[in-house]
Amino acid sequence: MRLAEKAYEHIKSMLLEGQVRGEDWLPIEDIAGQLGASRQPVMDAMKRLKLEGFIEIVPQVGCRVHSPSVQEIDDFYRLFASGEALIAELAAARADSDDILGLQLISAQIGSLTEEEGNTKKQGEKYRVLNRKLHSEMRRITRSPLLTEVVESLGDRSDFYVALSNQPVFALNLTLAHQEHEAIIAAIVEHNPEKARRAMEHHIFATEKRILNEMDQPGG
Fold first, then answer.
1. Same domain (yes/no): 109, 20
2. Is residue 132 part of a domain?
3. pLDDT score recorded for residue 171
4. Residue 191 vs residue 121, higher pLDDT
5. Residue 162 lies in a domain
6. CA torsion, points 106, 107, 108, 109, in degrees to nearest 10?
């Protein structure tokens, strides 16, 4: 893996896992040292992340984590809901029995997280990974590579907004999110595209509401 790509993946993981928050400065020299690289590949990664909307580059000052406005988040989730709703609609029309079984197995793994006790941060990270796996599987079921690529790229932005909130959004809402997933899958099982679309829209906008609610809370 090229050093710039390695730096990109490393910094992006920091952002999506909540290791840094909005307006935090990202120490170029420290990151380069961690990766055994020079400044240049790290800056190349920063420029790419800036284009994707994750960070801001302040000339002659440094790089910091992007802090979105409420309007930006709302605009994004309108777009994301539209894309994911189309995914759910097509999945309901095109899923076969093996596809449905795959969704049910992933959802069962998410359901098991609701019964775990202990570290909410670890629960949240497990959910984030399984949630992406479930949504990626729905996209695969559409058999539409172009649509999958476009909507998949938006998933990182959603996880980024979750990571910026002041509370562990995923962990605090495991049961509700699982119920929403189950409703989407039920519509796919029924091969009911319109019902699947509505269930997905509800899930995505509920996620947005949780993020905005937690951003209003004191830091945790």
1. no
2. yes
3. 78
4. 191
5. yes
6. 60
